[in-house]
Amino acid sequence: EAQVTQNPRYLITVTGKKLTVTCSQNMNHEYMSWYRQDPGLGLRQIYYSMNVEVTDKGDVPEGYKVSRKEKRNFPLILESPSPNQTSLYFCASSHYGSGTGRTGELFFGEGSRLTVL
Amino acid sequence: AQRVTQPEKLLSVFKGAPVELKCNYSYSGSPELFWYVQYSRQRLQLLLRHISRESIKGFTADLNKGETSFHLKKPFAQEEDSAMYYCALPNNDMRFGAGTRLTVKP
């Protein structure tokens, strides 16, 4: 089954304790992205990647890191989490039309709810 | 800069009433726009894209370049349409609006 898988789905942690949220897709998509969803603010992009070893900042990258060493995986790293990073996080992937410079339909993971105390 | 604006955070209508969710964009060039939907406890999924000119679950959206809008419409809302709706503009990334939470009351 074609899908985007995120882990963990739920996590409660404390300020300053490094954590990684994994994301994996099995559709051979070039493009992957992380978003956070907050009430009243909608979906905001954290980082995105147009292919292996190519990453770029979205609208709210502060406090986050990413890496894209393999096409299928795009982990989100919080080196020193803070309470303002409490949120619902979504990973998504898509084919990327390098000729058009556009992403196609995004396929989303189920979300990871993170609470930082 | 490319931007998508959804002016209404909340929208409430009664079952059977028409509904219109607004989306405005700014983009230099020929845009390609999407509507995504998130039902309660489900992941976000594509509802429709303007280039396909299709109607999905009774929803349609027309790209109006003059008004730079891509409003989502349905003539008769159903309770199962209650969800969060996002307008999105793909470029070398995918920008989303802030979303509109639609509630269809019985």
Keywords:
heterodimer; A: 117 residues; mainly beta; 7-stranded mixed sheet; 4-stranded antiparallel sheet; globular; B: 106 residues; 6-stranded mixed sheet; 3-stranded antiparallel sheet; 11 strands
Number of helices of chain B: 0
Give me the oligomer status. Answer: heterodimer
- Poorly predicted runs of chain B are none
Q: What average pLDDT do the residues of chain A reach?
A: 92
Q: What's the count of strands of chain A?
A: 13
Query: Total number of β-strand segments of chain B?
Result: 11
Summing up helix and strand content along with how strands pair, one would put the structural category of chain B as mainly beta
Tell me the Rg of chain A in angstroms. Answer: 14 Å
Major protein interface: A-B, 25 and 22 residues
Please state the overall shape of chain A, judged from the principal axes of the Cα atoms.
globular
* Count of alpha and pi helical runs of chain A: 0
Overall mean pLDDT of chain B stands at 90
The string of secondary-structure elements of chain A, in order, is EEEEEEEEEEEEE
Biggest sheet character of chain A: 7 strands, mixed
Overall helicity of chain B: under 10%
Q: How much β-strand is present in the residues of chain B?
A: 35-45%
Strand content of chain A: over 45%
Helix residue percentage of chain A: under 10%
Report, as a whole number of angstroms, the end-to-end distance of chain B. 41 Å
Shape category of chain B:
globular
